[in-house]
Amino acid sequence: MKILLVEDDDMLARGLSMALQETGYAVEVSNDGVEADLLLSTVPYDLVVLDLNLPNLDGLEILKRFRKAGKATPILILSARDALQSRVTGLDLGANDYLTKPFELSELAARVRALLRKDNWGNLTEIVQANLRFDTADRSVFVNDEKVELSLRELIILELLLKRAGRVVNKDQLLDELASHELELSSNALEIVVHRLRKKLENYASSIRTLRGLGYILDKNASPVN
Amino acid sequence: MPPLSIKKQLLFWLIAPLFLLSLISAGISYWLALQLSNEIYDELLVNTADSVVARIDYINGKQVIDFPESAEAMFRHLDKDKFYYKIYNQECKFVSGDEFLPCLPALVGQVHFADIKVMGESVRMVSLFAPRPGSPDRPLIVAVAETCNARANMAHKILFTIIALQTMIILGGAIALWIGVSKGLAPLHKIRTALARRSPTDLSPVRIERAPPEVTPMIDAINSLLSELKIYFASQSRFVSDAAHQLRTPLAGLKTFVDLGAQQVEDERSRKIFEQLNLGVMRMTQMVNRLLTLAAAEAAPERGKSEERVDLNVLAEDVVQSVWASWRLKSKTRVTCKTDAGVALVNGSEGSLRDLIENLVHNAILYTPDGGDVLVSVRKNSSIELVVEDNGLGIPAPEREKVFDRFYRLDTATNRTGSGLGLAIVKEIAEKHAASISLEEGATGKGSKFTVRFKVAELAESRSA
Q: Which of B104, B134, B269, B460 has a 20 to 30 A CA-CA distance from B331?
């Protein structure tokens, strides 16, 4: 999951990116309106946390341009403006959520999770594939109700496969996703990580299949094994 | 000595010269009238003299004075005055009449007047030649005289008439001036009442219908001052609002790190430190929010005549419930609400009135120790009274005015967590709603009792059942 944090206050930006990174998201920070606009038009993100009072280009204008360009990425506005009118305007311009400063970190984290859950998992708190259960809130993985400890790399790979369950995910997509978390890998190393992941999920009724030359696939709705 | 009012000055400078002028005019009129009446009386006296002259005849060069007793008696019995006459020649040789009269000289073709005294009385006398047909070269002289009673009488009549007339003129003039000056000064009076009637927060321009051109510049000056004040106040409250907004971002940064830190700590001591840090950030946040509420209340338009109507009964119940819900775990102070049946409609904004009641109730809870009581009640009589009463610490009488000042906190409250802005917000909102606030001791002699008096909302049309 890659988040763009647009916030011009250094301290808040540092604190938030630390907090979001600790939760396991890849965070990029922009402290300038024009720069953020440029980033949003070129780099794909999973979520945008957007301040409104920004140097050079107002947050609402960025939002307007972003939605006009046909992009559906969830946007959470984080603003010191708490008037009803600015909240309504922000949401009507296409923001998915509006949080006023100052805020509880836990609330922001929960809202970020909720937005990502809606976008990635259709609001489901749990994804179940056969006897594998994935908790979208804290990103924990269970097989037969037993928790499986995964590394961040393994988790990112599994999430992407789960998200596109039943469809082929090619190696480049996986490598890009890892790279966005600054977890660059070579193609060979990826195979090793996938191998380890399979091992950790050995009790999983279905499997992560390798399609030679294409990539990997996680079979959808494989019947659970008793 | 305090300066005289414009009205008094105008009246003084108008009535004093009017009085003086009318005195002068009365004097001149009296003098002229006296001259005129004297002339008439003198004419009459000359006629009388002529009548006496007509009695002198010359028969064969010998003078005969045919002045019968009856004719003489007719002259002598004038209504009020005594009559004298004397006929004498040019050497002052007495011929006939009253010998004691002095001899006045006479000139041809002229009459000669003199004022003399006869037996202590003022007497007007006239002498003239009496040329008759057949008279010798040097004719006799006839002098007649009468006392001045009729003249004095006439003079008195004229004087009284003039005095009466002038008094009427002065009185009438004074009344007309009084009315005129009052009318002329009416626009000033209107401005005064217009300014006195408005609430201290109302900085809208003064409008006087059909103001005279002399007053217009003053109204313009007042209005330009008002609009400058308005801009100043607006910029001041915008500054407060901007500053509070600007504080929110660093506060959010601080809060983020405090939360992050709190997530990391394991040991009890650090946990307590982070708890205190968090409390500090929360208090600052609350302060910033209150500042914003205050700035918003200041910048808000007048609500006293707002179209929106709010039922204080419903609102008070609602606020008490929500405040109670958030405080019942933190404080053992009971909060209850008592309202009359029916509606208690006031004109105003629901949002700000909610802020007002909330702040009063928070304040009461803050200054009431656990186990105390806070009672919110709404009473409707000629006005609508919102009363928030507690049996807590109370506010000493000398401090009661000051508690509505910003950041003012009682000494007893040093360890309390108020922002010092709650009651300033209450005052600001009340003023915007043309409501008055009073603060007394609680009914039991303990605690405080805040009363906010609103005007009853005018019902444009009663809602049909």
A: B269
- Which of B248, B253, B285 is the closest to A15 by Cβ? B253
Interface check for B17 against chain A (CB to CB < 8 A): the answer is no
Does A19 contact B251 at a Cβ distance shorter than 8 Å?
no
Yes or no: say if A207 and A198 are a contact pair by the CB < 8 Å rule: yes
Tell me the C-alpha distance between B47 and A59, whole Å.
Answer: 118
Give the pLDDT mean for A23-35.
90
- Residues B351 and B432 sit within 8 Å (Cβ to Cβ): no
Q: CA-to-CA distance for B368 and B333, rounded, in angstroms? A: 7
Say which of A15, A18, A80 has its CB closest to residue B248.
Answer: A80
Task: Quote the pLDDT of residue B2.
Answer: 77
Which residues from A are below 8 Å from B when comparing CB atoms?
9-16, 18-19, 22, 51, 53, 78, 80-82, 100-106
Give dist(CA A159, CA B145) in Å, integer: 148
Q: Given the cut 0.85, state whether the ipTM is greater than it.
A: no
The chain A residue lying nearest B296, using CA atoms, is A83
pTM for the full predicted model: 0.59
**SS3 category, A30:** strand
Look at residues A184, A197, A181, A182 and name the one whose alpha carbon lies nearest to residue A46: A181
Rounded CA-CA distance A74/A72 in Å is 6
Determine the residue of chain A that is closest to B259 in CA distance. A105
Confidence of residue B416 (pLDDT cuts 50, 70, 90): low
Any idea where the domains of chain A sit in the sequence? 2-121, 126-218
Angle at alpha carbon of residue B169, lines to B165 and B172, rounded to 5°: 135
The correct answer on CATH 3.30.70.1170 for the domain covering A2-121 is: no
Q: Chain B, 268-297: which have a CB under 8 Å from a chain A CB? A: 281, 285, 292
Burial level of B409, CB count in 10 A (0-12/13-18/19+)?
middle
CATH topology of domain B200-299: Helix Hairpins (1.10.287)
Q: What is the mean pLDDT of residues B76-98?
A: 82
Which fold does the domain B6-156 belong to in CATH?
Beta-Lactamase (3.30.450)
Min CA distance, A8 vs chain B (Å)?
9
Closest chain B residue to the Cα of A17, Cα to Cα = B256
Distance, CA of A216 to CA of B234 (rounded, Å)? 64
Contacts 24+ apart (CB under 8 A), A95-98: A95/A50, A95/A63
Domain range annotation of chain B: 6-156, 200-299, 309-455
The reply to whether residue B253 touches residue A18, judged by beta carbons under 8 angstroms, is no
* Statement: residue B131 has pLDDT above 80: no
Taking domain A126-218, whether its CATH number is 3.40.250.10 is answered by: no
Residue A128 carries which DSSP code? Answer: E
Question: Looking at domain B309-455, does it have CATH number 2.60.40.10?
Answer: no
Does the pLDDT value for residue A90 go beyond 90? yes
* DSSP code, position A57: S
Weakest mean pLDDT among A92-101, B131-140, B443-452: B131-140
Q: What is the pLDDT of residues B177-205, one digit of tens each?
A: 899 988 888 888 888 888 888 777 777 88
Shortest Cα–Cα distance, A79 to chain B (Å):
8
Quote the mean pLDDT of chain B: 84
**Could you report the per-residue pLDDT of B13-45, keeping only the tens digit for each?**
988 888 899 889 889 988 998 898 889 989 988
B 215-274 near A (Cβ less than 8 A): 245-246, 248-257, 259-260, 263
